[in-house]
Design goal:
Length: 414
Amino acid sequence: MTGAAEESRPAAPAVPAGAPLRGMRIVELSGYVATPLCGMALSQLGADVIRVEPIGGQVDRSRWPLSESGTSLYWTGLNKGKRAVEVDFRSDAGRSVIADLVTGGGPRGGIVVSNARFPGLSYEALSARRPDLIHVELTGKADGGTAVDYTVNAETGLPSVTGPAGAGPVNHVLPAWDIAAGLYLALGLLAAERRRLLTGEGQYVSVALQDVAMAMAGNLGYLAEAQLGGERHQDGNHVYGSYGRDFPTGDGHRVMLVVLTRRHWTDLLALTGLGAAMEAVERALGADFTREGDRYTHRAVISGLLEAWFARHTFQEVDAALSSRRLLYARYRTFGDLVADPAALLAGNPVLAMLDQPGVGPHIAAGSPLVMHGERCGARPAPAVGQHTGEVLGEALGHSPADLAALRDRGVIG
């Protein structure tokens, strides 16, 4: 992109003056979900995140879903508020520019996030130039093997307990391990930066996607349960070990109900008028439905009684009744349902706002869910390929317009 084209782009709104990471500079060498999410989360807290891409842009810039113009909604969603530099990763000269960018930046610079390795850009090579360097890297497996969210998820055992009974392995459409890994990367980076502030020492931080998944499978008790003889099966939309499932209402909506506590249970019986019926069932079964385990064990008979109540009422009636008792429930909605009334969606969700993204146009986008001192960073446009190349290299490395022109002529930068 030429300097003139760069100047024609609208400037992104500034981050809040009180943003906690203002002054921190991070170079991001990444693609897909986890590392871009890490960079965006830190950018939304005020860090200057400079995304360095190969000539023509990173491969995930064309990933679905796409706008009518062919712009990736996925890519723009995960890269909001960053600056973009376009450099030839394959040439020594290009990698030298990247190394200069990573190792500069004053006391709050010298931080790089990556999910790939390049000659001359390893932690060892970069820290030789800047001993207090912080290099945060995502890998597939701890032993160096490759993995992505979809392959890692298959190994966790979770698809075997997801979906209706007998359905076979069912993948979750949410890339949960990518999301968790991205936030772990950000956590590791901030921990390393705090250590550097205290000691002056840099470090290499590694997060393996498979480790994130296995850690959570362990933390949530899935592995211990199986080891100790428990066996979990696919159970549709039931909430394991408690009481929760979906119910159709009389007018065709579907509601997810979750009953976690004794108070939830007694209030549900009071508003549905099923107290006497449930007591009779308890006596017949020798059960106590104020206990979570008993509600789960006898979920089928409980559901049979509740289904009739839901079927007799419209969603509006169900909504009024359940909300009056502060019970846990929600109506199932599609993405189309969510955006059918944009004004109502935006009014009810302060994390969302309308963003005018070049290549996409005005659309609903998300800012940071974190509120710091009463402020949150709103959604800012994602950068075009190489949008800030001249700006960043001039500012960070002191390159003159003539220097930049020479680098462009040689194909070192875009």
